[in-house]
């Protein structure tokens, strides 16, 4: 279906007031990922959103004219709309209006394959839908309650819908808690096996799944599109002899990721928060990679993974026309790797970086165990000495001193 795209630049929102080609291109990719074709684009600059229409009356008139000229059947606004703003825009334009949150939720609903992923997406969509039921059933304002014609008005249709959505949300949360318990059991099994857990994180379409397949010889689905992978996949990965590593591929992040999705995917994203190392995959060929890295950092902060050790991998160096290389910190630790997951150039460098972090943690764990054992020994010795000092001399285990006598 042809769609008309609206890019919004608000003053003081942290985004460019003139609008950037990267933001508009990302909106086009989101629309294509959801199955829409681009029939036209419009850039709207405002100091603040209009309370009723978000875009303002003049821009709505321009939108109406473009819709007639392009034959579009839907408008996609690259901003979160309130239920009132979305309803008013649909009434004024006469077509369906999707905001950024609804568009991303629609993509997730199409891409979810696993049982857990489908439950998480359904939960997020129901939570988003529950705020958009206002005046959705004005033709069924009331239902009759009780038996007979004089029984008083019953519940409104909107109240019935809210209750049904609330019941379904409760069921989904219970099922997700059960799946989360299974995931925690699997995580404890990996911890008991002393495996070094690594999670791939990064902006969507940065090449995480391609890197995952290259490091684990797996066949996870990967494509040059946004949110190609939603389900977390874990595989054992060889990086060095006697260094057991489990690598996990997680869902990609994006600018202004809906909070409903973050809340619904808490159990899946917890893999990143519980990992021993985060490999932050960055598209080195993207001019907006700094902004994308900030967006990923924001999501990691929200899920409680900001303090997890991190190694940055700059992927797609073949498109950026760079060579494979590493960057070290002042102490000699590998902090960044430049590679191409598709061609394989630089894969040994990232294996070396992971092996270095795993060996550092193993050495730290051994030191901690030795210090703990020494501390326990010293504490036990002190307790035994204190117990001997508290006993009378006649009950102490030491034999009394011998005093000789002269015959």
Topology:
Layout: E1 2-10, H1 21-33, E2 37-46, H2 57-70, E3 74-77, H3 83-93, E4 96-98, H4 100-111, H5 115-129, H6 157-192, E5 196-202, H7 208-216, E6 233-238, E7 244-249, H8 259-264, H9 266-273, E8 277-283, H10 289-302, E9 310-315, H11 317-320, E10 325-328, E11 334-338, H12 347-390
Parallel strand pairs: 1-2, 1-3, 3-4, 5-7, 5-8, 8-9, 9-11
Antiparallel strand pairs: 6-7, 10-11
Helix pairs in contact: 4-5, 5-6
Features:
alpha/beta, Rossmann fold, 12 helices, 46% helix, seven-stranded mixed sheet, 407 residues, four-stranded parallel sheet
In short:
The chain has 407 residues and is an alpha/beta fold. Among the domains are: 97 residues, Rossmann fold, CATH 3.40.50; 169 residues, P-loop containing nucleotide triphosphate hydrolases (Rossmann fold), CATH 3.40.50.
Structural summary, described in words:
The protein has 407 residues and is α/β, with parallel strands linked by helices. Among the domains are: 2-98, 3-Layer(aba) Sandwich (Rossmann fold); 193-361, P-loop containing nucleotide triphosphate hydrolases (Rossmann fold, 3-Layer(aba) Sandwich), CATH 3.40.50. The protein is 46% helix and 16% strand. It has helices at 21-33, 57-70, 83-93, 100-111, 115-129, 157-192, 208-216, 259-264, 266-273, 289-302, 317-320, 347-390, and strands at 2-10, 37-46, 74-77, 96-98, 196-202, 233-238, 244-249, 277-283, 310-315, 325-328, 334-338. The strands form 2 sheets. A 7-stranded mixed sheet has the order 6-7-5-8-9-11-10, with helices on both faces. Strands 2-1-3-4 form a 4-stranded parallel sheet, sandwiched between helices. Helix 5 (115-129) packs antiparallel against helix 6 (157-192). The relative contact order is 0.08.
């Amino acid at each position: 279906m042809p769609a008309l795209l609206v890019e919004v630049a608000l003053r003081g929102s942290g985004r460019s007031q003139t609008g950037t080609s990267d933001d508009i291109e990302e909106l086009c990719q989101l629309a294509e990922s959801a199955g829409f074709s681009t029939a036209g684009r419009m850039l709207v600059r405002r100091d603040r959103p209009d309370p009723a229409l978000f875009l303002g009356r003049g821009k709505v008139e321009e939108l109406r004219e473009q819709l007639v000229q392009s034959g579009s059947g839907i408008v996609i606004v690259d901003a979160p709309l309130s239920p009132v703003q979305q309803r008013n825009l649909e009434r004024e334009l006469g077509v369906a209006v999707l905001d950024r949150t609804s568009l991303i939720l629609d993509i997730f609903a199409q891409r979810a394959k696993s049982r857990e992923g489908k439950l998480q997406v359904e939960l997020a969509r129901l939570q988003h839908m529950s705020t958009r039921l206002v005046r959705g059933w004005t033709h069924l304002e009331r239902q009759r309650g009780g038996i007979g014609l004089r029984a008083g008005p019953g519940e409104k249709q909107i109240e019935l819908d809210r209750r049904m959505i609330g019941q379904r949300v409760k069921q989904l949360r219970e099922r997700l808690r059960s799946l989360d318990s299974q995931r925690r059991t699997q995580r404890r099994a990996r911890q008991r096996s002393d495996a070094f857990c690594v999670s791939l994180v990064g902006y969507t379409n940065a090449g995480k799944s391609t890197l995952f397949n290259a490091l684990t010889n797996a066949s996870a689905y990967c494509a040059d599109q946004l949110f190609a992978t939603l389900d977390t996949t874990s595989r054992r990965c060889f990086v060095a002899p006697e260094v057991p590593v489990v690598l996990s591929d997680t869902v990609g992040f994006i600018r202004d990721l809906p909070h409903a999705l973050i809340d619904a995917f808490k159990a899946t994203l917890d893999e990143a928060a519980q990992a021993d190392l985060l490999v932050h995959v960055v598209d080195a060929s993207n001019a907006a990679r700094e902004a994308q890295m900030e967006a990923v950092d924001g999501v990691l902060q929200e899920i409680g993974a900001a303090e997890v050790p991190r190694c940055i991998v700059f992927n797609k160096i073949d498109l950026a026309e760079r060579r494979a290389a590493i960057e070290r910190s002042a102490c000699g630790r590998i902090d960044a790797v430049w590679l191409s997951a598709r061609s394989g150039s630089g894969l040994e460098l990232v294996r070396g970086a992971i092996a270095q972090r795993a060996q550092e943690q193993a050495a730290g764990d051994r030191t901690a165990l030795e210090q703990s054992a020494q501390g326990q020994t010293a504490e036990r010795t002190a307790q035994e000495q204190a117990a001997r000092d508290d006993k009378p001399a006649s009950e102490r285990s030491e034999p009394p001193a011998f005093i000789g006598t002269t015959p």
